[in-house]
Structure formats: C-alpha cells, structure tokens
Amino acid sequence: MKVAVDFDECLKDSPRFRATIEEVEADVCELESKLDKLVKLCIGMIDAGKAYNVASKHFVHGIQELAQQSAKDEVVESNLTKFAETLQEMINYHTILFDQAQRSIRSQLQIFMKEDLRKFREAKKQFDKVSEEKEVALAKNAQAARNKQQEVEEATNILTATRKCFRHVVLDYVLQINVLQSKRRSEILKSMLSFMYAHLTFFHQGYDLFSELQPLMKQLGGQLDQLVIDAAKEKRDMELKHSTIQQKAALQDFSNDDTKLEYNVDADNGIAMEGYLFKRASNAFKTWNRRWFSIRNNQLVYQKKFRDNPTVVVEDLRLCTVKHCEDIERRFCFEVVSPTKSCMMQADSEKLRQAWIKAVQNSIATAFREKGEDVDKLDRRSSASACSLESGSESQDRSLKGESALQRVLAIPGNDRCCDCGAADPRWASINLGITLCIQCSGIHRSLGVHFSKVRSLTLDTWEPELLKLMCELGNAVINGIYEARRQELATRKPRAGDSRQEAESYIRAKYVEKRFVHRPSPAEQKAKLLALSRQEKRSSNSSGHLPPRPPPPTPQLRPASSVTAAASGEEEGKESLFCPDELDSLFSYFDTTSQLRSIKSADSGIQNSAEGSREMLASTPSANSLSEAEAPDPTPLPPHARGSAVPREPKPYSPGLQLFWASCAGSLPDMAEAMAHGAEVNWANVDDDKKTPLIMAVQGGSLVTCEFLLQNAASVNQPDAYGRGPLHHATTLGHTGQVCLFLKRGASQNAVDIDNKTPLAIAVEAANADIVTLLRLAKMNDEMRESEGPYGQSGDETYQDIFRDFSQMASSDPDRLNRFQPNDSHRL
C-alpha cells in the first residue's frame, strides 16, 4: 500500500508536508464521521430487526392458533403447522443474522474508532503542540541580537532541542497516520466481510429450509386447484339450493300460506313433524314459553335447546285426543289431552294450528294401525295446504334442475369449440357477442374491456333465462359468419388451440376491435338489406307484432277469493291476471310496512293510495273482466304521437344505425349483430321516426331476446323518444309483461313521464293490465323500502327478487301466459 505521508517529507517540514497533513487530517475526520453514522445505522437496523422478529413471532403464534382451531380439517391443520414451524425457524435464522451484524459491524468498528482513532487524535494533539513550540523557538532564534552572545546561545540550544523533539513527534505522528490508513482498510473490509458471510449463511439456511418444504408446497398447490374447483361447485350447488328454497318461500307467500311443516310418517330420523310452539306452563302463573316440539315414535316431546334431552309431554299418543281451544284470550291454541294431564299449546297462525292438529291425529291413527293388523300406512296427503305447497315447490325444482347452461349452449351447432381458436370443450362465453370461448381466449376477451366483450363462465356463473335464450339464438357459426367474412379473402391465419397467447390476442383484436375481417356491403346490398328488414318488420306487425288499444271491457264479474274461477271462453281466460285476489293480498301484506312505505300519489287522479289501497285496487282489478264500466279505457283511436311508427314505403339511405333499427323491430339477431359489427350506435335515434331507438323498436317487435341483446351491448334503458316515452312506457302500452320485468330489473325509471304527463304505472292502470301493475307497484314499493333503510340497506327484498325471477322464467319459457291482448287484432298503437 502506498504510504499516506512520506517520512522524508516530515523531516523537511515543507509546505507540501503541511498540506498533506491537512488532507490526511480532514480525511480521518470524515472517516470518523462516516464510521460513527454507519455504527448508528447498524444499531437502528438491529433494533428494527428485533422488532420484526417479535412481530413475526406473534404472526407465527396466530398461525399456530388457526391450525389448532382447524383441527377438524386435517389438510389445513397439518399444512399450517408445517408452515408455522418453517417460519419459526426463519425467525431463529434472523436472530443469528442480527447477532452477527452486531458483532461484525457494531463491535468491530466501535473498537476501531475507540482505539486507533483515539491514538491518532492524541498524536495529532502532540504534533500540534510541538509544531507551535518549534515556531516559537524559530522566532526567538531569529530575534536574538548578534552582540548578545548569551541570548544567541540560549536561543540556539532551545531551537536544537525543539527540533529534536519535533522530529521525534512528527515521525511518530506520520507513523500513526500511515498505520491508521493501512488498518482502516482491513478493519472495514473485515467487518463487512463478516457481515456478508452472515447473510450468506442466512440465505443458505433459508434456501435449504424451503427446499425441504418445496415438495409439500407443490403438492398443496396441486390440491388447491382441485379445492378451488370443488369450492366453485359447492358454491353453485348451494346457490341452487338457496334459490330453490327462495322459490318455495315465494310460492308460500303467493298462496298466503305460511305452513312450512308437513307430516311424514316415514322420516328417517323417526321425527314425523317438528316446529316451534308456545307451551303454557303448569305453574300458578301459567306462563307461556316457546319450545321446539316434535312428534317422534308416537310421542309428543319438546326441548329448549338443541343439546337438551327432550321432555316427553305425551308418552303414548294412542291414549290422547287433540282439540281446539277457543275459550282463552290467545289465538291459535289447541290442547292435547291424555288420561293423566293436558298440555296447552299455541301455534303462530291458524294454518299451523290446523297442521299440528292433523299431525297429532294422524300420529294417533298411525299408532293404532302399527299395533293392529298390517295395512298400508297413513295417507300422506292429510294436509291439503302442505300438499299444494309441496307440489308447487316440486315443479319449481324441476325448472331449476333442468338442462344446464353448458349443455344448452354447447348444443348449438359450432358452439362445441372455441369461437376464436377452435379449442374443444369451451367453458366460457361472451354474453354480448353470443359465442363460446376457451379459457385462454376468455382471458383475452376480458382484456378488451366490457364495451367489446362481456365474459361469463358456463359452469360457475348463474344464467338468467333471457340471457341463455340469447346465447342459443346466436352462436359461433353466426358470429364468425359476420366477423370472419373476409378472413380467407385476406389470407389471414386463424389461431389454433395451443398457439401462443400473443398470436391469439393479435387475431382477436383484429377480429373484434379493428373489425378487419367484417364484410362491407355494397350500396345495392345495403338497400336490399333494409328493404328485406322493413318487409320482415311489416309482416311481423301485420301478424301480431303491434298490438291494438284495449277495447272496452265487458261487465265485471266477481272472482272468488279462495280459488280462480275458469273463464267463460279462451279469450277471457287469456286476459286474466296471473295473481288471484288472495295472492295479491298476501303479496301486499308482505310489503305493507307502514313505517317504511309512504303514501303513493296516483298520476292520473291525485288520490293518495297507501299499501292497503294498492291491495284493494289490484284485488278489485286483476284483469280486464274485473274493471268497472267507469274505469274502462276510452276506445277512441289514439292520436298520431301515441301510435307506433309506420313502415316506410322505401327504405331511407343506408346506415348501420338504421339497419340495427329495423333489425331490432324485426327481431333478427344476426342482422343486429351485423349492424353492430359495421359500427352501429346501439342508442341511435331515428329522427325521421319520432327519435325512436333500436331498443324501443325491439319492444314494438315484441321480442324479449332482442331487448336482452341490446341491453347487453350497453343500450340505454331510459332513453326516450320524441314524446318522452322510454322503453318501459312502450312495453307497458303494448302489454309486454316480460319486457317490463326485464327493464325494471335493468334499472328503468318508473317515475319518468311522457308528453301526456303519464308514468308507466298510470298507463298500466288505464289498460287494466294487472300483471304489469303488480310488477310496477312491487318495484316502486321495493325502492321505497330500500331508500328508507338508508345507504347501508339491502340491495333489494328477496321476495321481490323471487317474483321478478319467476316472471323472467315465464317470459322466456312460456310467453303465452303473459300475453295481455287478443292475438287476432292487427292494429298498431
């Protein structure tokens, strides 16, 4: 190593030597500052590391507690325990690392600073002192007078002694400087090397530790894929079961039947019937307590909690009788009397009381038959209300457990392979395009954005009936015929299954975003297309597409509350409401929460109607047959602005928007998809036809699937025409119940008024369309209930959602049941 200061220069004490000394002193001073800072940073790092270890120990302890809590799940418990042990071992390695850092950085550098730098400072102090004395001696020697021999000798002697001392001190100082410069390199590098070796050991130990854990992690990773699939299946099954239960509850609400119990003599657990009842105590206070009762093994028992041993009320039902109790203040009471005691019980409703009484009577009869001769068991149709409820729920179950979305969609020709790469067995779909996709192409479609493609799983997601019908009416063959019409002409290679994601993404973007392969029609083709669509729309309007204004209703006929009387003719039967008065009363009783519902002002009469008023109105006007003569709509022909648009004799100049306009009315989904591919604006307004939009024309065409296609492609559900009528107004006027249900689900505003200041509800009331009135009032009451619950309320009432789900299912599978007009009329509104 090159010496910092030359020993020969120190004897000369030249300006160069002094400058070198100053540089060395400044360097050593800076070194001391940097070392002191490094030591302090090391101390801070060690303290933070210790705090990290403490927090990590708490975290590991939490993992261990979670593993203990999951002791019933062997997979979770074993893996969490192993992970906790590994992390604890890493904490120990961290502790060793921080100890080594404290020894190598903090201790060694502090020793270097305390010893070597202290010696340097002391040598510097001595050097500065002797240098000053030398300067004084030189000055005194220079000032000595020539004629004063004694002063000269004295000054010479002092200077000689001072110079000797200076040489000794300066040599020691220079030696200390050079030793310090040499030692600083070894001390710093030695401490840092020790610190780096500590890190090397730490990471080697961690690598070895996790290498041992890696097989377990890979195994768990493989299991997780299956666990995710199983969890998705379980979720789907639970959602299906949840939906089934909701359907059963909705059926009970419609039938005004809160009986959820049924007698089952062949139950596997021996419990023929069970449920909550109030029981009157036998003490002096005669208190009433709610207990869980059950009929098991020909005994009547109850229990307070699940783990409590059942208390036997009646040991042998053959010795008992059951009767109504009408002589006490409480309602719905009945009494089970045995030879030794009697038990007074209370149900929650009259139907529940009747169900329990019949169940006890059936149990008594069963007990006698089991003891007597071997005959067939008790007829399980003992409870008519329970039987009707069960049959309704079974039909609902069949509709829910029918053909899956995957099977129905893949049954369409061309859908059994991915639309873009041809991969077999696709499990994903683009719902606004109506195509099936493999998992790789579905990810690329997601990256395009929902304004190009909306991706949904065919196996994991739930499918609305109208959306499933949309998928079945389009398909890969139709869409590829549009978006790949010029692919072969342009000699573009279509990706295949197994190609890289980059190739597939480039092709998909060219196909759907750039629309590079879409055929651009010639003017003659455009004109022929519009002419064909207009003729097709005209044929559909002449058949049944555009519906007439309702004729004056006949004399009202009363309808029994307990059952629906058959209509005198098929025409009258087609006009009846789907709800009988009892069902409407039960329905509005459910929603009648006076603390939540505000009075509703009628748009045409200004009369305040509460929820009770709504019930009375709907119960009294469930159909055209139940309207009074005073309430009959005026049969006078509607003004021009209230009628549907006339079909033009000659098509207007072609535009993609105009093609979408007429294709929507004609209900031709392939032509609509083609117009969208040509760049048609989904909310295009026809200024030559009262600013009507394709969605409004789809309403006039009467196709629910056409409306669903436009809504999936971002059509505005509230865009009005020139007369202020949105799609909901037109659907209400035409009596399209399924479309009304669809628009309400998609956020249509039922408070919007047209040029005549009429809301959809006012139009439905005037038309005596009880089903649409019911839907609009339910939606309005549901909105008010949700608003009254504040910003943190629920997203919607479950019964409301169930009702709308039933209407959607009916509109897709059995639309004739929702037809509110006579099919042989051909006039347009």
From TrEMBL:
Ranges where the record places region Disordered: 533-576, 601-651, 809-829
Keyword Coiled coil: yes
Membrane topology according to the record: Peripheral membrane protein
GO molecular function, one term: zinc ion binding
Coiled coil is among the record's keywords: yes
Keywords annotated in UniProt: ANK repeat, Cell membrane, Coiled coil, Endosome, GTPase activation, Membrane, Metal-binding, Repeat, Zinc, Zinc-finger
Compositionally biased residues, Basic and acidic residues: 814-829
InterPro entries tied to this protein: ACAP1/2/3-like, AH/BAR_dom_sf, Ankyrin_rpt, Ankyrin_rpt-contain_sf, ARFGAP/RecO, ArfGAP_dom, ArfGAP_dom_sf, BAR_dom
Pfam family of the protein (one): BAR_3
Protein name: Arf-GAP with coiled-coil, ANK repeat and PH domain-containing protein
Native species: Scleropages formosus (Asian bonytongue)
Organism lineage string: Eukaryota, Metazoa, Chordata, Craniata, Vertebrata
